[in-house]
Design brief:
Length: 71
């Protein structure tokens, strides 16, 4: 379940850039089918991978967090 990921670090593949944050998916999620990960405070480019600390879930159970610095 998504809830068990809160407080952990996950790898995210960036699919979309937005102003001040990016949207991506974990290796266990399929594009346009599964849930997404919203990474606040990231300027990573589409196609790159980053580590995110999961801080919460949104109302649709998507992961919300911040990039892990130095990872």
């Amino acid at each position: 379940s998504q809830r068990r990921l809160v407080g952990t670090d996950v790898e995210v593949l960036v699919d979309e850039e937005r102003q001040g944050w990016v949207v991506g998916r974990t290796p266990m999620d399929a594009p346009e089918v599964d849930l997404v990960a919203a990474v606040k405070g990231s300027r990573a480019k589409v196609g790159t991978r980053l580590r995110m600390r999961v801080e919460s879930l949104d109302e649709e159970w998507n992961l919300v967090g911040k990039p892990v610095r130095g990872a």
